[in-house]
């Protein structure tokens, strides 16, 4: 897929109906030969729309007007390029806990949670958030994570978590204002509810910061998993992480995680982790697959806003 095609796909499958600003911007970039030429000088993993738009927002540039975005990005390209090369899309969307909760609540309690690609670790607190699946509420406190769930009998409790740890090549610190500002910049322009959710989730995590280890998802996973307490069910999980991992490394991780004690929960695109016999997705929008121990259970939307259960 060319860079231009990737921006068209982002506009039509991810931003459409979710962020009009990013839909307009992504389509404009797909037709912008000057910007495309600059992007194509970067490694493939550094050309993605979310990363480019987040970097420009973080630097203070405009993302609501495509012409102004072009002028800013081109005139500030050395600064934009430097951030693209050093940063990653570490979107730490606590809303994804609403997708994890039905699986986590059904596993043998208590749980030891280990998140791969943890960013700042905000998804390590599924027991501290509240949830709403339609009219059905679970848990208490802030933030309240809303998820439109089809075909799902909502869970009746939050999990009992006795240990939580994260593994990331570049962990972010919930007590560091610069790191939190990067997480804020990755939220799409119109989505104030996600900004409110980020602030509430950061407050939860900052009150009891998680154990975050800088490391590789294959080389350093066994040692961190071994630190989980005896008597707790180990759950290794990840959400929208493996698309950034080269396929051979991805396959090595999948082999490794199957050999660990406990359970493996994955939320990734169907072209990232492949499963046989998947039903047709609910719509043409981009959907990920929720799976437990390699068995697919549900189609999910990227920020936890909806899931369609088929497992």
Q: Numbering strands along the chain, what is their spatial order in the largest sheet?
A: 5-12-11-10-9-8-1-6-7
Mean pLDDT: 95
- The name of the CATH topology of the largest domain is Rossmann fold
> CATH class of the largest domain, anyone?
Alpha Beta
Q: Count of DSSP E strands?
A: 12
Unreliable spans: none
Description:
With 311 residues, the protein is α/β, with parallel strands linked by helices. It has two domains: 3-86, no CATH class; 94-309, Rossmann fold. The protein is built from eleven helices and twelve strands. It has helices at 3-15, 20-30, 33-39, 49-58, 66-75, 77-86, 97-106, 177-185, 192-207, 221-225, 247-259; strands at 111-116, 130-133, 136-138, 144-146, 148-150, 161-168, 211-214, 233-239, 263-268, 288-292, 295-300, 306-309. Strands 5-12-11-10-9-8-1-6-7 form a nine-stranded mixed beta sheet. The protein is globular and about 55 Å long. The mean pLDDT is 95.
In short:
With 311 residues, the protein is of the alpha/beta class. It has 11 helices and 12 strands.
Looking at this protein, list some descriptive labels.
single chain; 311 residues; alpha/beta; nine-stranded mixed β-sheet; three-stranded mixed β-sheet; 11 helices
Fold topology:
Layout: H1 3-15, H2 20-30, H3 33-39, H4 49-58, H5 66-75, H6 77-86, H7 97-106, E1 111-116, E2 130-133, E3 136-138, E4 144-146, E5 148-150, E6 161-168, H8 177-185, H9 192-207, E7 211-214, H10 221-225, E8 233-239, H11 247-259, E9 263-268, E10 288-292, E11 295-300, E12 306-309
Parallel strand pairs: 1-6, 1-8, 2-4, 5-12, 6-7, 8-9
Antiparallel strand pairs: 2-3, 9-10, 10-11, 11-12
């Amino acid at each position: 897929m060319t860079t231009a095609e990737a921006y068209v796909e982002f506009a039509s499958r991810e931003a459409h109906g979710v962020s009009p600003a990013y839909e307009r911007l992504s389509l404009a970039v797909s037709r912008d030969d000057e910007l495309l030429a600059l992007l194509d000088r970067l490694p493939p993993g550094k050309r993605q729309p979310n990363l480019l738009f987040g970097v420009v927002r973080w630097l203070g540039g405009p993302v609501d007007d495509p012409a102004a975005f072009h002028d800013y990005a081109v005139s500030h390209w050395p600064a934009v390029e430097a951030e693209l090369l050093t940063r990653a899309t570490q979107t730490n969307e606590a809303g994804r806990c609403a997708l994890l909760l039905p699986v986590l609540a059904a596993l043998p309690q208590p749980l030891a949670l280990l998140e791969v690609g943890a960013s700042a670790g905000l998804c390590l607190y599924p027991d501290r958030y509240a949830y709403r699946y339609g009219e059905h509420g679970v848990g208490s406190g802030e933030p309240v994570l809303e998820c439109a769930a089809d075909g799902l009998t909502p869970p009746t409790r939050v999990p009992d978590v006795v240990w939580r740890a994260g593994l990331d090549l570049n962990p972010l610190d919930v007590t560091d204002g610069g790191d939190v500002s990067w997480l804020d910049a990755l939220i799409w322009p119109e989505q104030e509810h996600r900004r409110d959710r980020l602030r509430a989730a950061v407050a939860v995590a900052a009150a009891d910061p998680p154990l975050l280890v800088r490391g590789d998802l294959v080389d350093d996973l066994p040692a961190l998993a071994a630190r989980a307490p005896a008597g707790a069910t180990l759950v290794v999980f990840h959400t929208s992480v493996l698309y950034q991992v080269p396929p051979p490394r991805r396959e090595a991780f999948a082999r490794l995680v199957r050999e660990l004690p406990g359970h493996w929960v994955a939320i990734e695109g169907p072209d990232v982790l492949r499963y046989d016999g998947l039903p047709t997705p609910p719509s043409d929008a981009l959907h990920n697959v929720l799976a437990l121990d390699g068995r697919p259970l549900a189609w999910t939307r990227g920020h936890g806003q909806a899931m369609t259960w088929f497992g």
